[in-house]
Amino acid sequence: MTINKEVNYVAGSDASFSMVENSPLTHTTNLPQTIDLDKQEGDNVQKKKKRKVGEADDPKADDSNAGDSGFCHFMSVTQPRFPLPGRVSIARDCLSLYASEKHKLRSIFTKTNQSVCLTTDAWTSVQNINYMVLTAHFIDQDWKLHKRILNFCLITSHKGEIIRRKIEKCLEGYMIDKVFPITVDNAVSNDVAIAYLKYKMEDWNSHPLKGENLHIICCSHILNLVVNDRLKLKHMHFSLSKIRSVV
């Protein structure tokens, strides 16, 4: 609506209040209290919701996350009356998102014949559960560095045989056969795993240096071991207590 007539408003005058009262802009119909999302908006909300759960710190995040400040902000900017899904729906959506992202990443490796560098780590949680993660680092055709988690899984033990099976199965799943190098912690189990993978990659005949320099030990892990061993010395306790008292 466009108003072409200019009006001089005088604060506090009866004419001003009368003019506002009779203005067509002040007479509006009752608007609905809720706004329905169209299909495109609903799909966008679903995608944002899946990513929010996938990026959450709590791997068991579900509709109980409604009390989380990040989730509350998400709801406020999308649709305050958006129905919170249940645990089964979220689990199904997360698996669907994982499959979609895995397919995209596998397409990159297969179409570009991409070489990757790998890092892997294994640890035991406070619940005495063994975990392992495998991460790929690579440079794309636009010379941009990428880091992608290929696998985050449970393992029965930290034995080298178990670790190498998980790595080999993951590489085959993504159709990756060009690896250089693999960075691991300084552990005997990792030595066993990488030694077998080196032998396996010789059969693939795709390693740039025929398996040389495939095994790289993490410098940060070695430095951490050195520092911790040094701090365990008895004569260090006195120095540490002095430093802590100052801090």
Explain what the structure shows.
It is a single chain. Helix content is 48%, strand content 15%. With 247 residues, it is α/β, with parallel strands linked by helices. The chain has two domains: 44-112, no CATH class; 113-246. It has a five-stranded mixed beta sheet with strand order 3-2-1-4-5. It is globular and about 65 Å long. The model is unreliable at 1-11, 25-29 and 59-67 (pLDDT under 50).
In short:
The protein has 247 residues and is α/β, with parallel strands linked by helices. 48% of the residues lie in helices and 15% in strands. 11% of the residues are buried.
Major beta sheet, strand line-up: 3-2-1-4-5
User: How many alpha or pi helices?
Assistant: 8
Strand pairing plus helix content: what structural class?
A: alpha/beta
Radius of gyration: 30 Å
Mean pLDDT over all positions: 77
Total number of strands: 5
- Amino-to-carboxy terminus distance: 67 Å
**What level of helicity do the residues show?**
40-55%
Note the main sheet: 5 strands, mixed
H/E element string?
HHHHEEEHEHEHH
| Form type | globular
Poorly predicted residue ranges? 1-11, 25-29, 59-67
- How many domain units? 2
SS strand fraction: 15-25%
